[in-house]
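Re: the request from the purification team.
They wanted to know what the chain is likely to look like in 3D before they choose a buffer screen. I agreed to run a prediction and write the result into the notebook, where they can find it.
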Amino acid sequence: MEKMKHTENEEQKFTVRKLEISDKGKGFIELLQQLSVCDSVSNDEFECRFQELSSLGEDHVICVIEDEVSGKIVATGSVFIEKKFLRNCGKVGHIEDVVVDSSIRGKQLGKKIINFLTDHARSIGCYKVILDCSLDNKVFYEKCGFKQKEVQMFTRVSLDAMLGLLLSDQEVTGSNPKNNLSTRWVRLHTSTLKSLLHLTNFLLVFVVSE
């Protein structure tokens, strides 16, 4: 999908596009911190994850909006594609991590993110797009064409199981745990994982279909 320029007025111009590796220096991580727990990410960690997601091609797309005046990323969201056996081996788009900078809300940037992501999902043949949201955002997503359908269920994953899975990965790959990125991540973010496991959120499941 091509970059799209949108002019709000003579002073503000916004570009809607896919995430680029240089966006870390434009406040992308700081923007995500307005949405949820997001510790500092080193340049190496960012590049590693960016390359990993980029290798998925059109099956995982992160959209951003850049303020051309300030050069900052002011909105973002992502969609990943689930490939199913149902519906004649159909595809479903899952929208995640939608956030607009608190200093610039009220300019329809969130809607532009949602439109970009749903358009992408439809363009590659998804028969529906779904997302989770809080009660506070229910009206917003309804205005974007989504409707409530059922409720989300979840189960907690124990911290020991999460750490064990990550560390066992080192044994499988035979890599040096002292130098492996996953092991460094475990050391740095154990406290964050503990915090996340104590969070409870009631989320609604929303869906939009063709």
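For the purification team: DSSP finds seven helices and eight strands in the chain.
Please add any questions underneath this entry.
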